[in-house]
């Protein structure tokens, strides 16, 4: 992919997001979903091209790759307002690297009390950061064993743990990856239905308005459908940056 193709891909996805928004049910909040451009495995030149075309939110799911890209001198110089989303599985021994990322905006994959506590403590030690670290709860909505995320029935407890015990974290939403290759002709994606239900029960239990928690769901193959179902944060890689070769 060339820089020009990436900018074109980005514009195309933004346009499709707009159109999908118009198909949303009326009761869904009218906010414009955030597009996270998932740049994993892709070179920094393409990130810079998307940034210079006006894009700000980027997602990475390997810690070392996020560390390398976020500390790259050219990215630091040319992408001063970049917002990094960490969207991969996070091991507790890598937390210190993630909280030290310049421009870290949101960790979408908190899935246990222990990980939340480790992030909370690590963030408190980062004197250069202002405010709390935004996090999302990753929920394993498809109950596939190889998938990360907390089981749907543990989400309320984990959300309470973050809200009550982790003063340096701000719980902003829930995230799911969902089953790969779901056939939409079978009806609305059950992972998205499940995440919405989990969000409702968390909001009920914590006494929050539902609009207080975001839904991060939808990738290249299904982001329009996810938006129609209420997604506020879509994570799109290959439709912007082209296909990835496996690591
Ligand atoms: C890679 C990845 C994406 C983007 O996938 P595409 O199908 O390329 O859009 C989204 N979310 C997560 C968690 C990912 O790891």
From TrEMBL:
Keywords: Pyridoxal phosphate
Source organism, top-level taxon: Eukaryota
Cofactor field: pyridoxal 5'-phosphate
InterPro entries: Ala_racemase_N, PLP-binding_barrel, PyrdxlP_homeostasis
Modified residues (N6-(pyridoxal phosphate)lysine): 40
MF terms (GO), sorted A to Z: pyridoxal phosphate binding
Annotated ranges, domain Alanine racemase N-terminal: 32-244
Protein family (similarity comment): Belongs to the pyridoxal phosphate-binding protein YggS/PROSC family.
NCBIfam families listed in its UniProt record: YggS family pyridoxal phosphate-dependent enzyme
HAMAP family: PLP_homeostasis (MF_02087)
Function, as annotated: Pyridoxal 5'-phosphate (PLP)-binding protein, which may be involved in intracellular homeostatic regulation of pyridoxal 5'-phosphate (PLP), the active form of vitamin B6.
Family annotation (PANTHER family): PROLINE SYNTHETASE CO-TRANSCRIBED BACTERIAL HOMOLOG PROTEIN, PYRIDOXAL PHOSPHATE HOMEOSTASIS PROTEIN
Protein name (Swiss-Prot/TrEMBL): Pyridoxal phosphate homeostasis protein
Species this protein is from: Diploptera punctata
């Amino acid at each position: 992919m060339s820089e020009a193709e990436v900018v074109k891909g980005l514009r195309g996805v933004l346009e499709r997001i707009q159109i999908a928004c118009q198909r949303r049910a009326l009761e869904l909040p009218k906010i414009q979903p955030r597009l996270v451009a998932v740049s994993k495995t892709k070179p920094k030149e393409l990130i810079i091209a998307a940034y210079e075309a006006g894009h700000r939110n980027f997602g990475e799911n390997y810690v070392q790759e996020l560390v390398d890209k976020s500390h790259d001198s050219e990215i630091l110089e040319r992408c001063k307002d970049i917002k990094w989303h960490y969207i991969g599985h996070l091991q507790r021994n890598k937390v210190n690297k993630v909280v030290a990322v310049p421009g870290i905006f949101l960790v979408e994959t908190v899935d246990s009390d222990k990980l939340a506590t480790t992030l909370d403590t690590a963030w408190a030690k980062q004197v250069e950061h202002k405010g709390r670290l935004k996090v999302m709860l990753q929920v394993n909505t498809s109950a596939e064993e190889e998938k990360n995320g907390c089981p749907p029935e543990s989400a309320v407890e984990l959300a309470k743990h973050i809200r009550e015990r982790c003063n340096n974290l701000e719980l902003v939403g829930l995230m799911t990856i969902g089953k790969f290759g779901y056939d939409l002709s079978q009806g609305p994606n059950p992972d998205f239905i499940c995440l919405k239900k989990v969000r409702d029960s968390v909001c009920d239990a914590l006494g929050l308005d539902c609009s207080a928690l975001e839904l991060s769901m939808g990738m290249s193959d299904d982001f329009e459908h996810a938006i129609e179902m209420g997604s506020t944060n879509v994570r799109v890689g290959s439709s912007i940056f082209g296909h990835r070769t496996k690591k």
